[in-house]
Design a protein that fits this description.
alpha/beta; Rossmann fold; two-stranded parallel ribbon; about 15% strand; globular; binds 1,4-dihydronicotinamide adenine dinucleotide; binds ligand LHIR3OJJ; sterol metabolism; lipid droplet; steroid metabolism; transmembrane helix
């Protein structure tokens, strides 16, 4: 299938950025480029730019690399510049700053918004400012800059309240009691973006809800796991160890985002909707952790502890940390959120993404784990 082109466009192989122009007017610049017989097969539609807000981050950078591979010119907007890449222009700034954003969104038709404070932060004001106020600013800047499509990286956690979710679909209600500030503000953020979808204004939005992203350069999952193991705290399995969870390889998440951008059109079911993107292979949480740990030379956890006991302790430690905050900053490893994630079922159906955008995971879980383990030689035991 040509990516993102309607059947009218005969050159529909690469560009998704101005798809409806192409379908209507084959003489558009993007199609002219494609008709030139002297052009290389991998066309760089230089006048077509997309922007990735949060493009210096783990997911953002993988997304940028894939888009560049596909021949796109990419603007990255982030509070930090983490790397350099040909074909990528960096704009350093805070997404709450509309003027700074406008510069990065100039002549851009598709925006991917995958910036967020780290979920482990307990800074409520920061989450409110970036995820809620900042996302309002992103939407406003998109309108002003004439952006046509906004793809938000939301999270499957927006429906998670700390109790089992088995094969959860997108129609589950948002969590009434979100488990932390991160989740609370991701819910508000998703609502803002989906409500902004307007066919009349020519501004289309969609939200991708990945779950448990992992892969090379992830700053969270593997590094936190290894750090916990190195401190001798990864000996215990929370609960009976049978809880199934989604862990999603980063390349599959990127694939879901790009498919969403391609399929988001005024007449498509994607407009204003949320989509789970997973590996579609729920795995026992503790088997997954053990495979990563053993792959890196550490022992797998063996002893079982009752879930309610560990959750209670985590809650107590969190309370103590909050009370002592004016005097000392403590960051417990086993936060209530992590314990809930480690001891319950939370896996999601991606049937809607399969149906509406032809999503299928590209990298199976087993292969994804091997690639991930190989990408962290510096975290191997003894290094
Ligand atoms: N890592 C995971 O397992 C999951 C992540 N997500 C979502 O995916 C998105 C990307 O997450 P990751 O790549 O893991 O995080 P990350 O922390 O690696 O990347 C986030 C990026 O956003 C940037 N950023 C933060 N505040 C900013 C601001 N005010 N202005 C401009 N840039 C700012 C950071 O500098 C960073 O480069 C986030 O929206 C997150 O909520 C959703 C589900 C699971
Ligand atoms: C100390 C151990 C009990 C757990 C170590 C691994 C954890 C750091 C990760 C296991 C599940 C992960 C996860 C997220 C972050 C890292 C884990 C807690 C998210 C909270 C990241 C942001 C989201 O949107 C949802 C993720 C769910 C799974």
């Amino acid at each position: 299938m040509g990516i993102g082109f309607s059947a009218l466009c005969p050159y529909g192989s690469v560009c998704f950025l101005r798809d409806h122009y192409c379908s209507a007017r084959v003489s558009s610049d993007c199609c002219k480029e494609r008709r030139d017989p002297h052009m290389a097969t991998r066309v760089r539609p230089s006048s077509k730019r997309c922007a990735i807000i949060g493009g210096s981050g783990f997911l953002g950078r993988h997304l940028v690399e894939r888009l560049v591979d596909k021949g796109y010119t990419v603007n990255v907007f982030d509070i930090r510049q983490a790397y350099e890449l040909p074909g990528v222009t960096f704009h350093q700034g805070d997404l709450c700053d509309r003027q700074a954003l406008l510069v990065a969104l100039k002549e851009v038709s598709v925006v991917f918004h995958c910036a967020s404070p780290a979920p482990a932060s307990d800074d409520r004001a920061l989450f409110q400012r970036v995820n809620i106020d900042g996302t309002r600013t992103v939407i406003q800047a998109c309108h002003e800059a004439g952006v046509q499509k906004l793809i938000l990286t939301s999270s499957a956690s927006v429906v998670f309240e700390g109790t089992d979710i088995k094969n959860g679909r997108e129609d589950l209600p948002y969590a009434k009691k979100p488990i932390d500030y991160y989740t609370e503000t991701k819910i508000q953020q998703e609502k803002l973006v989906l409500e902004a979808c307007s066919k009349d204004k020519g501004f289309l939005t969609v939200a991708i809800r990945p779950h448990g992203i992992f892969g090379p350069r992830d700053p969270q999952l593997v590094p936190i796991l290894v750090d916990t193991a190195r401190r001798g705290k990864m000996k215990f399995i929370i609960g009976d160890g049978s809880n199934l969870v989604d862990f999603t390889y980063v390349e599959n998440v990127v694939h879901g985002h790009i498919l969403a951008a391609e399929h988001l059109k005024a007449d498509s079911p994607l407009c204003g909707q949320a989509y789970h993107i997973t590996n579609d292979e729920p795995v026992r949480f503790w088997d997954f952790m053990s495979q990563i740990l053993v792959g890196l030379g550490y022992s797998a956890p063996r002893y079982h502890l009752p879930y309610t006991l560990v959750y209670g302790i985590a809650l107590l430690l969190w309370l103590i940390a909050v009370l002592l905050r004016p005097l000392i900053r403590i960051k417990p490893t086993f936060t209530p959120m992590r314990v809930a994630l480690a001891g319950t079922h939370h896996y999601y159906s991606c049937a809607r993404a399969k149906k509406d955008m032809g999503y299928q995971p590209l990298v199976p879980l087993r292969e994804a784990i091997v690639r991930t383990v190989e990408s962290y030689p510096h975290l191997r035991k003894g290094k």
